[in-house]
Amino acid sequence: MQPEDLLNEGNDSQKPEKESPLISLERDLKIFKDSIREVAVEIMMEGLSSYPIFIAHQHELSLGEVILDRNDLNSEWSIHASTLEEFEERGVIKPELKDRFINSYKNPNDYMCVFVVVPEGANFVYFPYAK
Fold first, then answer.
1. How many H-runs (helices) and E-runs (strands) does the chain carry?
2. CA 3 from chain center: how many Å?
3. Where is the segment annotated Disordered (predicted)?
4. Residue 73: which pLDDT band, with cuts at 50, 70 and 90?
5. N vs C: which end of the chain shows fewer Cβ within 10 Å?
6. DSSP letters for 62-122
7. Which residue, among 37, 25, 126, 34, has the nearest Cα to 81 in the 3D structure?
8. Would you list the domain boundaries of the chain?
9. Distance of alpha carbon 30 from the chain centroid
């Protein structure tokens, strides 16, 4: 926050607050949910993993495989497909936290597990396919 923001006394000419990146992510996930679900089912049916994870980001990232590129699709977020196994192998999920992750993992037929990467950090969110 800038000092002038603290002293703002009815100055309507200031620029509007920046939209949370999660709002644009929700928009993109709604648009692409069927494609994402298809990849999740494929990951599980091929026996690659029982725990598909999708990585949403707006930067360059070398985790998982690109399934939706924001530059190609004119969207705000790129989505990569990955698995619990890759996250563990790459050290994103530590072995001692694997059971906790599995216990909190929601039904992959109803929810996509999204690892959201923003400049402030990263976190898991579950987004329902039916929303």
1. 5, 5
2. 33
3. 1-20
4. confident
5. N
6. -SSEEEE-HHHHT-S-EEEEEEHHHHHHTTSS-GGGHHHHHHHPPPTTTEEEEEEEETTEE
7. 37
8. 20-128
9. 12
